């Protein structure tokens, strides 16, 4: 069964083939997404200050944060005394030799290292994935979710099959951000998303709906089955260990569950599940509320 994806207008490519680079795959500002920075000159400085080669406008980025330097036939990422640290594939590093596809996190921006003779193909694949995936969490984005929900709603209506939607929200997420910082919040959001994804079936769709809210489409599932899956997700997250920079973080989620009613549009479906989510919040959080 084919997936429909809205066409994406790619930026023109003028960089010579085989030229290694880093590409912004997640950033607070959408005008940075997809931007490519060549590593041809051998050393690339990254930071908040305007004198850097890669300028990231964020308070979580130091003025001079890190550099990428060529050593022989390899590139190395070096943190240069930043306040919030430099990460490669979610690991805090002082220095790291970069491998093809490595993800570099500096403040609240994620860059992907592209290298090799097929760099152009990698770049186009990266840009395509940005149209359907959330760069921070590694699950689908809202755009993809909306398209898939329309598709599944039409199929369920046509064949008179059950379809259930689960909306989940991380409890007290603002407190995590305010007290531990946005980097800790990013870590929690990604870990929760990946935990939830690991429990779901191949045909289920999980997406970041917005902020700290996740949406899960459950085809061929009634509200009882949806409640069971949501409860398993809730328990899995409540009992998981979340450790960021040596500190434990208590994390729970609240979930709302709704089954498709005849005549509903996508808007009605999401609204019903969202209302159940708010009921779960009002009832004390860390619980599942079905419709």
Give the structure's gist in a few sentences.
It contains six helices and 18 strands.
Task: Outline the secondary-structure elements.
Layout: E1 21-26, E2 36-38, E3 43-47, E4 54-55, E5 66-71, E6 74-79, E7 86-88, E8 91-93, E9 95-97, E10 103-106, E11 109-114, H1 119-132, H2 142-159, E12 163-170, H3 173-180, H4 182-199, E13 205-210, E14 213-219, H5 223-239, E15 243-244, E16 247-248, E17 253-259, H6 266-282, E18 288-290
Helix pairs in contact: 3-4, 4-5
Explained architecture:
The protein is α+β, with helices and mostly antiparallel strands. Strands 2-1-11-10-7-8 form a 6-stranded antiparallel beta sheet, with helices on one face. The chain starts with 20 loop residues before the first strand and ends with a strand. The protein is globular. The longest helix has 18 residues, at 142-159. The protein has 2 domains: 21-131, Tumour Suppressor Smad4 (Sandwich), CATH 2.60.200.20; 142-290, Alpha-Beta Plaits (2-Layer Sandwich), CATH 3.30.70. The protein is built from 6 helices and 18 strands. β7 (86-88) and β8 form a beta hairpin.
Name the descriptors.
291 residues, alpha+beta, Tumour Suppressor Smad4, Alpha-Beta Plaits, 2 domains, 6-stranded antiparallel beta sheet, 5-stranded mixed beta sheet, 6 helices, 28% strand, disordered N terminus
